Amino acid sequence: MSCPICNKDSVERYKPFCSARCADVDLARWMGGRYAIPAEDPPDAEEAEQILRALEEGNDTLH
């Protein structure tokens, strides 16, 4: 397996990275927002209110 940052061979101690430096670079990228996990957009306010009203009325047919 190669290091996802520099493509050198990974080292067991830092797997999947080759060094502490590459692991730190990866962490900095996550913390800086360069990576993102795809997610669904949250429901808009009107849709959220509709869902809450349906739940309060006991209507559980909304999915």
From TrEMBL:
<keyword id="KW-0862">Zinc</keyword>
<protein>
    <recommendedName>
        <fullName>DNA gyrase inhibitor YacG</fullName>
    </recommendedName>
</protein>
<keyword id="KW-0479">Metal-binding</keyword>
<dbReference type="GO" id="GO:0006355">
    <property type="term" value="P:regulation of DNA-templated transcription"/>
</dbReference>
<dbReference type="GO" id="GO:0008270">
    <property type="term" value="F:zinc ion binding"/>
</dbReference>
<feature type="binding site">
    <location>
        <position position="22"/>
    </location>
    <ligand>
        <name>Zn(2+)</name>
    </ligand>
</feature>
<dbReference type="GO" id="GO:0008657">
    <property type="term" value="F:DNA topoisomerase type II (double strand cut, ATP-hydrolyzing) inhibitor activity"/>
</dbReference>
<feature type="binding site">
    <location>
        <position position="3"/>
    </location>
    <ligand>
        <name>Zn(2+)</name>
    </ligand>
</feature>
<dbReference type="InterPro" id="IPR013088">
    <property type="entry name" value="Znf_NHR/GATA"/>
</dbReference>
<comment type="function">
    <text>Inhibits all the catalytic activities of DNA gyrase by preventing its interaction with DNA. Acts by binding directly to the C-terminal domain of GyrB, which probably disrupts DNA binding by the gyrase.</text>
</comment>
<comment type="subunit">
    <text>Interacts with GyrB.</text>
</comment>
<feature type="binding site">
    <location>
        <position position="18"/>
    </location>
    <ligand>
        <name>Zn(2+)</name>
    </ligand>
</feature>
<feature type="binding site">
    <location>
        <position position="6"/>
    </location>
    <ligand>
        <name>Zn(2+)</name>
    </ligand>
</feature>
<dbReference type="InterPro" id="IPR005584">
    <property type="entry name" value="DNA_gyrase_inhibitor_YacG"/>
</dbReference>
<dbReference type="Pfam" id="PF03884">
    <property type="entry name" value="YacG"/>
</dbReference>
<comment type="similarity">
    <text>Belongs to the DNA gyrase inhibitor YacG family.</text>
</comment>
